């Protein structure tokens, strides 16, 4: 054996062991740091303004979900107006109405049902309403069944379960309070009404076959088109849930909000996609008159078809 | 190949090829294992990172809710969070710490009060909020050991609450990689050992027949077939075997040719010796014949002189007797050499030859001294051929010495194993150039017709056939010495 070969026969395994150790060390050194993307410009938040204008919202959704829907709109207002707005979560509608009246809230999102209930007793005024897909500030309530349910007339639901959303909404009251008392034959067992927190939950339970029928907003029902449900009854048009101001609201601020939200330029349409589904089609200015007239019609019972509403205080 | 061969001193071409191939295979396998290891390591790390990020994301929703809850209820957020964080930490064994910083990077809550004091500021918080994405890292901490951390922005649209940092232990991730490393190392080592063993067996199997062939060649004898089992398949070794057998055949052929020529040379030498003898014999016979002739002439001229006639007749008788002896000896020498072996006393053989040459020697007045060893044991040999050898050597000495020259002949025993006969003369000797050639057939320095140059070559071959040798020593000008050495051999 030559000196050279002896050298190699000892050096090779040694080299190999050293390499393995090196590899081992390298493999177990799991240190890493993500690279921060290179961002130019100012932070997005406009903190620093002296006055914070609070906008109230009431919802049964969890706060973070609610923020996901409403905060983009607030952020848009912050970026487009010289004012600084913040969301304020209210536990109840009455709390929100009270805070509006006291001036704690600059504005608040209220449901139509709730606004009609409080508009005469508190100094609050509707000034904006979201548009539906047809460009009007209104919506309808619909009665839905599963596609395989052989619906012909309302009495088909006799003794069946019908899902409804919150009792503080028109949808939650429409069939139960305003329709059935007028049209249901005496002596026939009424349908059993089951309350859910959200419109979507009603549809989900209907699809799952927990219910025979459901009552929801037309927009929600349309989301589920082609997923095993069909609409069997529609209500007349009902004014959309308004954005409401209180007596002490700063007119400039209200004007700025109205101005920005009614004139969203086409190039900014994209931002609407982030917003709550309710606001996807933009806003229009409204007056209390719209709601007053609707309430009058309700009170008089002059509704097209068999639909009639009663507002009880 | 030079470097390779100095590293692996392997002789066989095929074995060398196999080792090179095996080494390449092993290296390839190691590289593949390394690539697999690297890939798996990346997967494990990415997976761990994603896990940490998703847990942090999920927890961030809860933190945001708490922020909103605290805001709408005019509560201090750190009070609300502190309890939940410690509760969550206790229920999540892999979680090492949770820290929350406000949008400016000032610490709000830390699961470890010590840390709250020592890391009061997170300079990255504004940047993370600005990017809107989680910032993950893995690092080694003095207290927590290896940690994978996700820094998650607490943010909805432009509303920023701060940054949530959650650190999870990464020791188990490292253990996983370690396990992978060891198992791949083991696997690679097993494969290597397996490949080497296979290689060893294979190369041994391949060279076995080659080794068999070499040992067979070592024991090879020209006239016997090679004791080698030819491999059943056609390869280089069977080719080698075939060529070797062919060479053996050619050797056998040339050997038989050599033997044939040798036989012819014997015959030619025989004839030549007889010719040379004949001239001597003619000379020897001529003298008595001349005497007989003159006796007969005298008797014929005076047939009545009975006294004279009786005297001449007696002389004639003597002359005839002399001729008779010569002829008898001649006959004895000329008998065809048989290859028979018998017990031969070399002294006897010497004496017979010297008797034949006696007349010649006396004519040239050569002084002959004979010192035979009387204890010389008989050897197994052909007596006729032995006589021929001595005859040749003595004739050479006869030719070499001048008038009144001196030839001495002695026999003896060497080492109890060999007998020798030494013939020394005081002729001119042989010059060193010629000494190499004198045993070549037909090498002669004598005049044409006087020497054939066969004497020594035939003699040597005879002696060698008896297992002996002929040694020559000569000093030019002083004479030379030929020593025939023969083994005593066993009595058969
Ligand atoms: N005793 C000697 N002294 C000197 N030279 C010798 C002697 N013996 C042999 N030689 C040399 O060796 C040569 C070869 O000898 P060898 O006996 O083979 O042939 P040769 O004597 O020449 O012929 P022949 O065939 O008649 O014997 C001789 O020619 C001679 O030159
Ligand atoms: Mg001779």
UniProtKB/TrEMBL annotation, chain B:
CDD domains with a match to the protein in the record: HisKA
Matches recorded under Pfam families: HATPase_c, HisKA, sCache_3_2
One GO cellular component term: plasma membrane
UniProt cross-references to SMART domains, sorted A to Z: HAMP, HATPase_c, HisKA
InterPro entries: HAMP_dom, HATPase_C_sf, HATPase_dom, His_kinase_dom, HisK_dim/P_dom, HisK_dim/P_sf, sCache_3, Sensor-like_sf
Bilayer topology term: Multi-pass membrane protein
GO MF: ATP binding; phosphorelay sensor kinase activity
SUPFAM superfamilies: ATPase domain of HSP90 chaperone/DNA topoisomerase II/histidine kinase (SSF55874), Homodimeric domain of signal transducing histidine kinase (SSF47384), Sensory domain-like (SSF103190)
Record-listed E.C. numbers: 2.7.13.3
Entry keyword annotation includes ATP-binding: yes
Major place of residence: membrane
UniProt entry keywords in alphabetical sequence: ATP-binding, Cell membrane, Coiled coil, Kinase, Membrane, Nucleotide-binding, Phosphoprotein, Transferase, Transmembrane, Transmembrane helix, Two-component regulatory system
Name of the top EC class for this enzyme: transferase
Regions that span the bilayer: 15-37, 180-202
Coiled-coil parts of chain: 244-271
Subcellular localization(s) per the UniProt record: Cell membrane
Span of domain Histidine kinase: 280-490
Keyword Lyase found: no
Protein's recorded name: histidine kinase
Organism in which the protein naturally occurs: Caldithrix abyssi
Lineage, top ranks: Bacteria, Pseudomonadati, Calditrichota, Calditrichia, Calditrichales
């Amino acid at each position: 054996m030559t000196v050279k070969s002896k050298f190699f026969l000892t050096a090779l395994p040694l080299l190999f062991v050293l390499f393995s150790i090196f590899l081992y060390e390298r493999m177990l050194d799991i240190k890493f740091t993500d690279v921060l993307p290179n961002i130019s410009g100012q932070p997005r938040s406009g903190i620093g303004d002296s006055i914070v204008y609070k906008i109230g919202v009431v919802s049964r959704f969890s706060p973070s979900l609610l923020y996901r829907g409403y905060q983009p709109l607030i952020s848009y207002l912050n970026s487009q107006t010289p004012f600084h707005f913040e969301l304020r979560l209210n536990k109840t509608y009455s709390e929100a109405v009270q805070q509006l009246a006291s001036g704690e809230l600059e504005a608040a999102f209220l449901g139509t049902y709730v606004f009609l209930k409080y508009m005469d007793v508190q100094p609050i005024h509707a000034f904006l309403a979201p548009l539906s897909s047809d460009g009007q500030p209104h919506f309808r309530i619909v009665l839905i069944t599963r596609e395989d349910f052989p619906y012909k007339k309302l009495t088909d639901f006799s003794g069946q379960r019908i899902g409804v959303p919150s009792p503080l909404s028109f949808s939650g009251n429409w069939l139960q309070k305003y329709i059935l008392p007028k049209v249901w034959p005496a002596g026939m067992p009424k349908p059993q009404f089951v309350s859910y927190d959200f419109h979507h939950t009603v549809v989900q339970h209907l699809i799952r076959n927990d219910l025979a029928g459901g009552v929801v907003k037309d927009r929600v029902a349309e989301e589920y088109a082609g997923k095993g449900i069909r609409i069997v009854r529609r209500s007349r048009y009902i004014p959309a849930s308004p954005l409401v101001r209180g007596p002490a609201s700063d007119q400039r601020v209200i004007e700025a909000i109205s101005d920005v939200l009614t004139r969203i330029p086409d190039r900014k349409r994209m931002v609407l996609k982030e917003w709550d589904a309710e606001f996807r089609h933009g806003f229009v200015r409204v007056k209390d008159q719209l709601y007053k007239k609707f309430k009058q019609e309700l009170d008089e019972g002059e509704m097209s078809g068999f639909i009639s509403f009663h507002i009880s205080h | 190949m030079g470097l390779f061969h100095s590293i692996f001193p392997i002789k066989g071409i095929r074995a060398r090829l196999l080792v090179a191939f095996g080494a390449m295979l092993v290296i390839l396998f190691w590289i593949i294992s390394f690539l697999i290891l690297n890939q798996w390591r990346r997967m494990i790390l990415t997976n761990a990172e994603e896990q940490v990020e998703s847990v942090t994301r999920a927890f961030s929703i809860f933190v945001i809710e708490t922020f909103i809850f605290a805001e709408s209820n005019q509560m201090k957020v750190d009070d609300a969070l502190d309890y939940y964080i410690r509760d969550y930490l206790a229920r999540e064994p892999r979680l090492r710490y949770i820290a929350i910083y406000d949008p400016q990077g000032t610490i709000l809550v830390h699961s470890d009060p010590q840390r709250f004091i020592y890391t009061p500021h997170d300079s990255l918080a504004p940047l993370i909020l600005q990017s809107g994405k989680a910032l993950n890292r893995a690092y080694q901490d003095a207290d927590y050991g290896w940690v994978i951390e996700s820094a998650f922005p607490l943010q909805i649209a432009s509303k920023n609450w701060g940054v949530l940092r959650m650190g999870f232990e990464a020791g188990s991730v490292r253990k996983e990689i370690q396990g992978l490393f060891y198992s791949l190392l083991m696997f690679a080592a097993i494969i290597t050992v397996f490949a080497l063993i296979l290689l060893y067996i294979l190369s041994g199997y391949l060279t076995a027949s080659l080794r068999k062939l070499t040992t067979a060649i070592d024991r090879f004898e020209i006239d016997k077939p090679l004791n080698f089992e030819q491999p059943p398949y056609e390869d280089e070794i069977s080719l080698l075997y075939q060529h070797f057998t062919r060479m053996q055949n050619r050797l056998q052929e040339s050997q038989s040719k050599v033997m044939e020529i040798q036989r012819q040379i014997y015959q030619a030498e025989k004839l030549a010796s007889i010719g040379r003898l004949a001239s001597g014999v003619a000379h020897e016979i001529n003298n008595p014949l001349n005497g007989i002739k003159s006796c007969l002439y005298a008797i014929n001229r005076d047939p009545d002189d009975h006294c004279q006639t009786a005297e001449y007749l007696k002389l004639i008788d003597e002359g005839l007797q002399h001729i008779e002896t010569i002829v008898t000896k001649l006959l004895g020498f000329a008998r065809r050499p048989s290859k028979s072996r018998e017990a031969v006393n070399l002294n006897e053989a010497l004496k017979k030859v010297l008797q034949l040459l006696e007349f010649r020697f006396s004519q040239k007045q050569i002084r002959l001294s004979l010192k035979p060893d009387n204890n010389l044991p008989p050897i197994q040999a052909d007596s006729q051929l032995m006589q021929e050898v001595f005859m040749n050597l003595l004739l050479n000495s006869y030719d070499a010495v001048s008038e009144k020259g001196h030839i001495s002949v002695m026999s003896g025993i060497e080492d109890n194993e060999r007998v020798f006969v030494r013939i020394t003369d005081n002729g001119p000797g042989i010059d060193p150039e010629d000494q190499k050639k004198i045993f070549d057939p037909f090498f002669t320095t004598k005049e044409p017709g006087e020497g054939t140059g066969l004497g020594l070559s035939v003699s040597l071959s005879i002696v060698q056939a008896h297992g002996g040798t002929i040694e020559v020593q000569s000093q030019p000008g002083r004479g030379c010495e030929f020593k025939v050495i023969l083994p005593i051999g066993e009595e058969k």
